[in-house]
Design brief:
By secondary structure, this protein is α/β, with parallel strands linked by helices. The protein has helices at about 20-30, 50-65, 75-90, 120-135, 155-170, 180-190, 195-200, 210-220, 230-240, 245-255, 265-290, 290-300, 310-315, 320-335, 350-360, and strands spanning about 40-45, 65-70, 140-145, 175-180, 200-205, 225, 260, 310, 335-340, 345. The protein contains 15 helices and ten strands. The chain binds adenosine-5'-triphosphate and magnesium ion.
Length: about 375
């Protein structure tokens, strides 16, 4: 019996739960060039399932005859896109009609800006258009997905500008981008890429309890196991609906289970066994992204059992309210905390609060 859970970042889950509406809307958009789902920017915290969703949408588009080109926002992404497109287009184009590309290298495209386009980049754009023209004649659409967006990557901002022009010229294209909340926000605020603001911004949320329950029992059922109702409820609650936690907890509960029905005790054991893995992945990954001041802000929040008042945090940190406010904005952008109305903030992921408590105060409890 093999464990069906995949507690690894970027790994496509056996069952992708809770994203049906998005998938359906996207598939409708593939038939309609003017649909807002033709250009989407997904935003969400670590482990919420951005990469898994992009992968699924690519698969679906390919099943419908689209070519998909998938890259990470990195400084050689233009070159990578061209290579993938050439390779995939070849499958569709009879040899005689293959486009003769100039073969110019685009590997040295450092320092590209939209205003100042070096000739290697112009060649890249011309080559791209040559390919797209042939594909368009054959009625083949191209889906671009760009994961881990970062506006500091000039190739990304250049690509977005190019994409806008290609759309204006009527090529059948779609663009899906994904990134952490602070990156998507700074992409939207970037001066030179008007188009990013026209993309549909979708904030990926944790799954609902009911969705988690169905997912968990379906996953166990794949390997012939059932789970007691109370055990399932405990497991769903412990995950908070976060896909990464769902996979991590599910994995350890599966390992802990002996018979064909998973018991409450086995769920408790699995949660306990998962805790240290979760601490090293979720907590350490989050802390690594934060500055010391961000962390002090979070520590100040730990003193409150529920939401924290901004005024109390400022007092505890011995800083002015406006200084505390700056850190609040930063942490909200990073998806770590959320506004809780009327001058209050709360942890975006309750589990993170617990982990931080254990880490900094020596308290326990998952
Ligand atoms: N909708 C879903 N249903 C079930 N499992 C999911 C879902 N989305 C993602 N997962 C699982 O959750 C884990 C994290 O997903 P993924 O790597 O896509 O997150 P991410 O948002 O891209 O994270 P990061 O910001 O670190 O790149 C993976 O193990 C994946 O298989
Ligand atoms: Mg990812």
């Amino acid at each position: 019996m093999s464990n069906p859970f995949t507690p690894a970042f970027g790994f496509p889950p056996a069952i992708l739960a809770g994203r049906d509406e998005i998938i359906t809307s996207f598939l409708i958009a593939l038939n309609n060039p003017g649909d807002p789902y033709r250009a989407v920017l997904f935003s969400g915290v670590r482990g919420i399932g951005k990469t898994a969703l992009l992968t699924k949408l690519c698969e679906q588009a390919q099943l419908r005859g689209w070519i998909s080109v998938s890259v990470l926002a990195r400084k050689d992404m233009l070159k990578e896109m061209m290579e993938q497109l050439e390779m995939k287009a070849e499958e569709f184009l009879p040899a005689a009609k293959r486009v003769r590309l100039t073969g110019a290298s685009v590997s040295s495209l450092g320092g590209v800006t939209w205003q100042n386009v070096p000739s290697a980049v112009k060649t890249w754009r011309t080559d791209l258009e040559k390919l797209l023209k042939v594909l368009k004649r054959k009625n083949i659409g191209v889906l671009f997905t760009i994961d881990e967006v970062d506006p500091k990557i000039e190739d990304l901002t250049y690509f977005i500008g190019t994409y806008q022009l290609l759309i204006r010229d009527g090529y059948p294209l779609a663009l899906l981008m994904a990134g952490l909340p602070n990156k998507t926000r700074s992409l939207l605020n970037h001066d030179s890429i008007d188009f990013a603001r026209k993309a549909l911004l979708i904030k990926l949320k944790p799954l609902k309890v009911a969705e988690v329950k169905v997912l968990m029992s379906d996953m166990f059922a794949k390997e012939g196991k059932t789970i007691e109702e109370a055990a399932l409820a405990r497991l769903a609650a412990a995950s908070d609906g976060y896909p990464f936690l769902i996979q991590m907890l599910g994995y350890h509960v599966f390992e802990a289970s002996k018979g064909s029905e998973i018991t409450f005790e086995e769920v408790e054991e699995g949660i306990k066994n998962a805790a240290s893995f979760i601490e090293t992945t979720v907590l350490e990954a989050t802390l690594a992204d934060l500055s010391d001041k961000d962390i002090s802000f979070l520590k100040a929040m730990l003193k409150d059992p529920e939401d924290s008042l901004m005024a109390d945090i400022a007092k505890r940190l011995k800083v002015t309210p406006s200084y505390a406010h700056q850190y609040k904005t930063r942490l909200i952008d990073q998806g770590v905390i959320e506004g809780a109305g009327r001058g209050k903030v709360t942890f975006a992921m309750p589990l993170l609060k617990q982990l931080m408590k254990e880490h900094f105060d020596g308290d326990s409890a998952l």
